[in-house]
Amino acid sequence: MSSVLAAAAAASPVLATMPPRQRAEALVAAADALLAAADELVPLAMEETGLAEPRLRGEIKRTAVQLKLFADVAAAGEFLGVRLDAADPDFVLGPRPDLRRYLVPLGPVLNFAAGNFPFAFSVAGGDTASALAAGCPVVVKAHPGHPRLSDRTAQIVSAALPPGALGVIHGQEEGVAALRDERIAAASFTGSLAGGRALAEIAAARPHPIPFYGELGSLNPVVVTPDALAERASAIAQGFAASVSGSAGQLCTKPGLLFVPVEFAAAEAFEGVAPHPLLHPGIVDGYTRRRAEILETPGVTVAVEGAVTDDGVTPTLVETDLATLLKHRDTLLQEAFGPLSAVVRYTPGESLGAALTELVEGSLTAGVHIGAGEDSPWLRELVAALQALSGRVLFNGWPTGVAVTPAMQHGGPFPAATNPTTTSVGTAAITRFLRPVVYQDCPQSLLPEPLRDDNPWNVPQHRSPAGESSTWGSLAA
Where do the coiled-coil regions begin and end (predicted)? Predict the structure, then answer.
């Protein structure tokens, strides 16, 4: 571990001063190398995770796309947020100095890789891509579910990067030790609520606390309105079943609660789903325990029993109502990481938005299925409640599937994430690993390249000229 951290520390000033276009070229080269190695990496991932080849090939493509997306972010240079305020002797509050502000990389980032996405949220995943684009070296604490894949991926990707820009460590003790190491300037995490909270406390308790960006548990509630159910009940059932059972429910965006206004015949949609192995024994134990707790809760009935066998798991679907959910909230309102979901009946016209606000904690997503042209004060109240408890509000769709695109938000109020103002997917993710610095009355020769008047990096510069302050407020008029 020590050598990996030392290499990251040595690489930090190199990456920080590397022109954005060079960073971009390195990220594109890393993406191309990853794609070129797919025939080697995918079978290794299948062996270690049990995930199917089509899923893994799609994921490795997604990972390359993420790297290329952040390559473009780096090349454009807009993420530096350059603001130049010219010296102004006639400033309305007294003479203003020359002020030049931009964002600089924090330094080495520790990334705790996820188990359910061995490519997209692992060694070369989104956290790594965004940190490298920001100019930060990355140390990945590999997930124990795919150690050999992690090492091989790092070898392939790091060959396209400056020395020390990407390293891998293994084991819980090494991960915690790295988190406490003063060379680490920020950390990211995708995993369980308990694990994320423990790591966040360690990051906060350091002599010099660091930012910790954790993506934790999520129930992802979805509401079906009476109009939607009347129009397309069968299609909703099919989409629900596919979203719950995909990848054996081992997705942070799986819909854990489906609210319906009447009895909902969803069981048929779950028929024929083949057993699927869970990623590792720890997930099997956790899922088995949560499933038993839910099935034993009074007021919960079984619609699809499912099973946990040596061959894998099949989906379990339960039904209940709002009163039972409220009475047994401590048992029922915890994530079951696996193919289990609950259908919850509500009474049409009741204040479901208020109930959700009371019952459901922060989620990565929340959704609603509505009828054609549907609009009402009840629906608007519901949508406002869904916005308040989630980072992404979906209409007539399912939360599984997180698009790799600039506007995506993957985060939300706690416990969905430790920081509700950031995202781990989308171009805004780069801001997690940057901090602002201002140069005041600095000679041109000593300014960093992005702040110089000749702008050698050719990045966007927002300028506030002298005399501008006398017109402030005119836009409002």
Answer: none
Which CATH number belongs to the domain containing residue 293 in this structure?
Answer: 3.40.309.10
Residue 426, domain CATH? 3.40.605.10
Q: Report the alpha-carbon distance of residue 460 to residue 224 in Å, rounded.
A: 45
Same domain, 210 and 326: no
CA distance 35 to 278: 26
Three-state secondary structure of 183-235: CCCEEEEECCHHHHHHHHHHHHHCCCCCCEEEECCCCCCEEECHHHHHHHHHH
pLDDT for 155 equals: 97
In the chain, the amino acid numbered 315 is P
Residues 65-94: pLDDT tens digits?
999 999 999 999 999 999 999 999 999 999
391: region left, alpha or beta (phi > 0 left; psi from -120 to 50 alpha): alpha
Sign of CA dihedral 250, 253, 259, 262: negative
CA angle 106, 109, 113 (to 5 degrees): 150
Which two tokens mark 284? 């099997």
The answer to whether the pTM exceeds 0.85 is yes
Distance CA 106, CA 434 (A): 5
- 24 DSSP 8-state letter: H
Q: Are residues 277 and 313 in the same domain?
A: yes
DSSP SS3 for 421: coil
Identify the bridge partners of residue 83 per DSSP, sorted by sequence position. 101, 462
Residues facing residue 367 across a β-bridge: 222, 394
pLDDT tens digits, one per residue of 435-465: 999 999 999 999 999 999 999 999 999 999 9
* Domain assignment of residue 52, given as a range: 2-216+420-434
Residues 194, 297 within the same domain:
no
Residues 249 and 134 in one domain: no
Tell me, yes or no, whether 48 and 135 share the same domain.
yes
Is residue 408 assigned to a domain? no
DSSP β-bridge partners for residue 276: 313
Between CA 240 and CA 304 the distance in angstroms is 13
Reference 140, options 159, 121, 156, 117; nearest CA is 121
Number of domains in the chain: 2
Same domain, 127 and 226: no
- Considering the domain architecture, whether residues 323 and 201 belong to the same structural domain is answered as no
Q: Whole-angstrom Cα distance, residue 207 to residue 209? A: 6
Residues 61 and 173 in one domain: yes
Mean pLDDT, the chain, rounded, equals 95
Tell me, yes or no, whether 469 lies in a domain.
Answer: no
| Active-site annotation, residues | 215, 252
